[in-house]
Automatic annotation (TrEMBL):
InterPro entries: ICL/PEPM, Pyrv/PenolPyrv_kinase-like_dom, Pyrv_kinase-like_dom_sf. The keyword Lyase applies. It comes from the Bacteria. This is 2-methylisocitrate lyase-like PEP mutase family enzyme. Keywords: Lyase. Signal peptide: none annotated. GO terms for molecular function: lyase activity. It holds the Pfam family PEP_mutase.
Length: 237
């Protein structure tokens, strides 16, 4: 499946819902349930490989997992690629596309130095990935300013500035991860309109009403699966 197929599914007000998978088997389940796209969750994939999240897993293993997922399904695959695994933009893009994926999350957290990358630096990184991929990759630019933010409204201006810079650099969609306040999210969507916005949440109708174009469940299914298995194991004992 092509990036254009994935890109066309990002429609404000009719969001693409992404139940995130972590291996080939769960990816097949997503496709069999009728979802048109398989997304991965970095924390779930890393855990399945035996590593913590935050680019602690070797890039070779993360990309190998992505390749197994892409081979297992016939729908487009978009990969949670964290901050790019310390690769140059060109190498990152080449290796990601080689997995068969046609989309990625690309976040502005610097996992080496800690904290957020300066907006100009992250926009430049995105521009390199866009130039290397051309139209063959749907880039979901993750904006991490709301992670742990005590006041989401206070963080909104920076989030909007980052979103506009990332879209100008070639991102297809912007993702203010874990922005929970619906009024703040509505203002964010309006500020970057008509660009596609990715959000988190279980109330799909409410998010659609805000004009969101994509909804990620993130690690939700993985956590629910682990919780069920942990409880069942206790029952078996």
């Amino acid at each position: 499946m092509t990036a254009e197929t994935l890109r066309a599914l990002h429609v404000p007000g009719r969001p693409l819902v992404l139940p995130n998978a972590w291996d080939a088997d769960t990816a097949r389940l997503v496709e069999e349930a009728g979802f048109p796209v398989v997304a991965t969750s970095s924390v779930a994939v890393a855990a399945a490989l035996g590593y913590p999240d935050g680019e602690k897993a070797p890039v070779e293993e993360m990309f190998a997992a992505a390749a197994r997922i892409a081979r297992a399904v016939s729908v487009p695959v978009t990969v949670d690629a964290e901050g790019g695994y310390r690769l140059t933009g060109a190498e990152f893009t080449q290796r990601l596309l080689a997995t068969g994926a046609v989309g990625c999350n690309y976040e502005d957290t610097d996992h080496t130095a800690g904290g957020l990358r300066p907006v100009d630096e992250q926009a430049a990184r995105l521009a390199v990935v866009r130039a290397a991929a051309g139209p063959d990759l749907v880039i979901n630019a993750r904006i991490d300013v709301f992670l742990g933010a005590p006041d989401e409204r206070a963080a909104l201006p920076e989030a909007i500035a980052r979103a506009r810079a990332y879209l100008a650099a070639g991102a297809d969609c912007v993702y203010p991860i874990l922005l929970r306040d619906t009024e703040v999210l509505a203002e964010f969507v309006a500020a970057v309109s008509p660009a596609a916005v990715n959000a988190n949440g279980a109330d799909f109708a409410a998010l659609a009403g805000l004009g969101v174009a994509r909804i990620s469940l993130g690690a939700g299914l993985w956590r629910a699966t682990r919780a069920w298995m942990a409880g069942h194991l206790k029952t078996l004992r």
